Structure formats: C-alpha cells, structure tokens
Hints:
Elements lengths: L2 E7 L2 E7 L4 E5 L6 H13 L19 E8 L2 E8 L3 E6 L2 E2 L12 E4 L5 H4 L2 H15 L1 H27 L4 H40 L6 E6 L7 H7 L1 H7 L10 E6 L2 E2 H4 L2 H23 L4 E4 L8 H13 L5 E5 L2 H11 L3 E7 L2 E2 L1
Parallel strand pairs: 3-13, 3-14, 8-12, 12-13
Antiparallel strand pairs: 1-2, 1-4, 4-5, 5-6, 6-7, 9-10, 10-11, 14-15
Helix pairs in contact: 3-4, 4-5, 4-7, 5-9, 10-11
Amino acid sequence: MLELKLVNFKNxxxxxxxxxxxxxxxxxxxxxxKTNLLEAIYYLCMTKSxxxxxxxxxVRQGADFFRIEGNFAEQDKVVAKVIPGKQKKFExxxxxxxxxxxxxxxxxxxxxxxxxxxxxxxxxxxxxxxIDNTLSQLETGYLKMLMTYNKVLKQRNAALKGMGKSGYYxxxxxxxxxxxxxxxxxxxxxxxxxxxxxxxxxxxxxxxVISNDAEQVAGVYVSKLENDSLENLLRxxxxxxxxxxxxxxxxxxxxxKFIIGGNPLRKFGSQGQLKSFVLALKLAQFxxxxxxxxxxxxxxxxxxxxxxxxxRVAQLIGLLLDQDFGQIFITDTHENRLEKIVEQxxxxxxxxxxxxxxxx
Length: 360
C-alpha cells in the first residue's frame, strides 16, 4: 500500500498518509487512533472489521458516512464508501463490485493482535474463523459455500426455535433445510481437510524457528464428517435438535486441536508456548497465502508488546525483516522501545506519531 486516505472513519475526520514499502510504525498513547489505522487497512482488504465491529460503530461521531481509499500500486486504487444501513460500496480502479465477496482475496492481509491468544485458549469458533479467513482469501468459491451454509443453518435454527415455541414440528421443512446443507457442508469439509494437511508443515517450520526447536507441535482437524455423512448425522440428532432448538451436528462444530509435546496445548502449554504457537500460526498463514496467491499479503501487527516480552518482539521483528515479509504495519505505545528494535533490522521504515486522530 502506497497511500491511505480516511474521511470520517472512527476518530479520523480527514487523513492522508503515505507509507514505506517495507516497515511502518505507528506510535502514541492508547486511544489516539493507532489501531484504527490498521483496522482501516484491514477493512479495505476484507470489507469488514477484524474485530467484529459493525459499520455503524466505525463512523466518526457526528457523521453519517465514512470513506476509505487505498492506493496499492500504480493505477490500483480501492475505495470503500459506506453509509451504515443504506450503502456499502467497494470500487477498484473506479469500477464498483457487484458483490463484496468478489473483492476478498484480491489484496491478501494478515493481522496479529493481542487477543489472538484466544485462537489456542478459547473455544472452537476462533479456530474455525482462522481457517475460514485463510480459505476465503484463497478461493471465492469457498466463501460462497460458507455463506450459503451459514444462511441455511441460521434459517434451520430459527425454524427449530419457532417450532419449539409453537409446539408444532414441521418435519418436511426441516428435511428441506437438511438437503440444502449437504452440498456446501461437504465442499467446506473437504477444503478444510486439504488446507490443514498442507498448512501444518508450514506452521511447524515457523514454530521451530520461533521456539528454537524447543518441542514438537502438531494440529489435528476434528470433524464428525470424517466417519459419517452429514445426512446421517442430522437424522441421528433430530430429537436432540428439537429439544435444544438448534442444529447440533455439522461443519459449524468442527475444530482444530493443537498438540505440544504429545499433549493438548490448552492443558499443558505454558504462557510462552501459547504465545509462540499463535505467532507461528499467523506467520504460517502469511506464508501460505503468499505461496498460494503468489503475492505478499499486507502484515498488520497491533500492540504486540502487550502480550509479548521484549525478547520475543525483537526476535519476531528480526524474523519478519530478515525473510522479507513485504510491507508491515506495526503499532506501539512506547516510541523509543519500538524504534530501538526496528533500527537494528530495518533500512527502509517510517515512523508516525498518532495523537487524537491526527498524525503529527
């Protein structure tokens, strides 16, 4: 990305900033708008917030729209024009997309934030989201199937809940929803299974570098579709679904189990190992996207000092710049701390001081 322009985005009324092609550092106190800059870049790539923030919450207070423009190369301009609840338009080189999903994957992006530890410490939803985020950037067909599956699943769950309230069970309607789930579920399952098999060696390589080859790590994709069809699973869980009023079987229940030294990571991993695990996952995601897309994703690192000690941050920055990860954007609350580490490795970097929605 060569340049970013913001109008009424979060706490930015009007901003235009040009970037280094290698490393860009945003420094300033908390609440000044550093993370908002990364979120704007991510939004321009993925058509949504990395943090699950809705569009209405992204509009600057007192405004009714926001606009984000990114110039990524000569004659390659992406613009997001958003009036929450009324309009959400993405344009590339002045041509509007018919559907937002057509844009996802065109500009691959990986974001590392302090809460990424939830990837290994929380429930399966975070790990499915990680897989889906990667695959959606690789293949529009995957995203279409995922959207179809989620839409039908939502309808099926709403029907089960309605039937529970009314006391009338419409078997014909449920069977119709079942039939609509089968094809997308099988596509998603096969794609995830293939992805994990190809992704794990890349992840293991990064973990060895980050941990200095301290222990063996692995990952296992867990899905009930491994041993049975979704059609059978839905039939077997029919009574359970009626009682709980939700769909209890399907690819929305899949998980990725992480293992360290032969034991479950969540139970036996130290804080340091959890942090190394997450970093390895994210860097492997970057590498996998780069290999498959044949272009380097943008890499966004938000307040990584918050959860990493100085040694790990120095090790990470050295790794990123030594192996040429492309264009990197990083935030920190302490100007001197970041600059001392960066100066050891980077020859081409820019530092921006952020204060109250302005770069000074």
